[in-house]
Amino acid sequence: MSLKDWPSAGFPGTAVNPETLLPEVVDEEACNAALAESSDAGDRIFVLLARGLTAEAAEAAAQARLVDPESIRLQVLDAEVLRASRHFDRAELALKSILPAVAGKPMEAWLFQQLGKVHFSNGQFEAAAKYFATSLELRVVAGSDAAAIYSATVSLKRALDLAERQ
User: What gap in Å lies between CA 78 and CA 92, rounded to an integer?
Assistant: First the structure.
């Protein structure tokens, strides 16, 4: 799959690597320009994670959560830091604790996608596929944008392919 076929990661200059299912910065110039325009701490944390700078992302997330402790997005990014730090059980618990707050809301599909990523990163491909399938279903039912549906589809296919090899 060529770079142009990588799913969007939701921030300019980033895309989801179809092998690892993790976001990566693929266009430094576009990413840096978008970061310069953004005042959202979550954007900075996301880009740090996409660059593989987990310790810096953890510090930025901790600072941002002091300012906005109720932010669902920041809570999910905290869980993403845990996933990147290979604290899979803690990441899963953090995400599952958020589920009741987003049930029936557009963010619910994103949360299931994140749970799938936690299991995928931990080599639990069947469990990951179940979460990705739920995310995909919720996105289709909600009429989400094509990029979100494509990302969930690529994730589901990759998880199913790897589960079949186990």
Answer: 11
Asked if 58 and 85 touch (Cβ cutoff 8 Å), the reply is: yes
Residue type, 108: E
Report H helices in the chain: 28-37, 41-50, 54-67, 72-84, 88-102, 107-121, 125-142, 146-165
Q: In angstroms, how far is CA 60 from the centroid of its own chain?
A: 17
Measured distance CA(45)–CA(108) in Å, rounded: 20
The residue among 86, 143, 78, 75 whose CA lies nearest residue 109 is: 143
Give the tens place of pLDDT for each residue, 30-58: 999 999 999 999 999 999 999 999 999 99
Rounded Cα gap, residues 127 and 14, in angstroms: 26
pTM to 2 decimal places? 0.93
Task: Tell me what pLDDT residue 79 has.
Answer: 97
